[in-house]
Amino acid sequence: MCICYKDVFLRSFVAFTSGLLYAWPSPFLLKITQDKVHYNISENEASYFTIVHAAGMLTLPILLVSIAQIIGRKTLLNLSTIPYITSFVLKAVCTNIWLLYLARFLAGAGDAIVFAALPVYIGEIATPKIRGIWGNSFIIAVFLGQCGMNIIGSYCNVQVTSYIGLAIPVIFLIIFSFMPESPYYLIMRNRQEEAKSSLRWLRCKEDVESEFENMKSSVEKQESGSWGDLLRIKANRKALTAGVFLRISQLLTGVYVFAAYTQFIFAKAGGNISPQMSAIIYTGVTVIMYSCAAYLSNKMGRRQAYMISIFLAGLVVLSEATYFYLDTVHPEINLESYKWYPLVGMILFVVVSSFGVGIIPTLMLGELFATSIKPKGNYF
């Protein structure tokens, strides 16, 4: 059954924006701290850019998730462009550390909305056969954004990069306003004809009656879920436990730290290749590996792929940590012959994480919870 490629492409815009903003510290943490003419910011102050972004991801969603069933997935995705656009504008015109913190906070808030709404949307509209592949396009777009930020940020200043990035969410907001809502949501709101119209758009065909009836039957069997239902209902408790475990284990591998501090890590490591080029190579390999990952994870099975991936990723992170520990704490040890390892190690990390720990948690969060409880469950 067909999912229109134009729909996949359009929704990738907002994921691409997420990647751009998340990787912003990679090229600009060093640039800002070294530019004492326009910015009077220390390395310690700049290190909070990533923390403030995470705070934005934690605080805003809980205010929105309660009304997710009212405003819909489409409106949530449209709302994500507001903090994204504001974040780019602040970075373009401001040099004050507190306003830059605000810009990072808003970028995190936008990410929280996207990561809560988009996996749910994908889980509701994609058929099981292609859900993993289509969901992977969202993740690939995030990494494309990170690669784009490292490329643009390596050759442009903060202002120029911000204006370039600003165009993406603006284009998304304009075009996405004309796109249909999730058919599941429309059925839940008793908007039957709109749901059929949405299905016709998504499947690129006129005859959707059979699938519409199946969706309607599925929705009718479910009642609207409350926050308490996450813990009271056994199936929801299992889904919540699995979801929290998947997300925490993913975070602990360091995948997001690598993305935010890519050039900073390579600058501290030294080596014959510049931090800028190393970051471009690393993020480029990331895009390639994640483009192939969905096929491998589907063939291996998600459980097996996840367990193998997280074990190997842990070994790579341990080896990277050992290198930097020796380099920092024991400078008497000569590591000149191993300056190549930080780049090679991070590429190995991408290879082993791409088919499992890097992709599966995001895909599974769109599938674990029942339709009525998804917005609340995916907050975690």
TrEMBL record:
Superkingdom as given in the UniProt entry: Eukaryota
Pfam families: Sugar_tr
One annotated GO molecular function: transmembrane transporter activity
TM region positions: 47-68, 75-93, 99-121, 133-154, 160-179, 244-267, 279-298, 305-326, 346-370
UniProt KW keywords: Cell membrane, Membrane, Sugar transport, Transmembrane, Transmembrane helix, Transport
GO cellular component: plasma membrane
Residues annotated as signal peptide: none
Claim: Cell membrane is one of the keywords in the record: yes
Protein name stated in the entry: Facilitated trehalose transporter Tret1-like
Lineage, highest ranks first: Eukaryota, Metazoa, Ecdysozoa, Arthropoda, Hexapoda
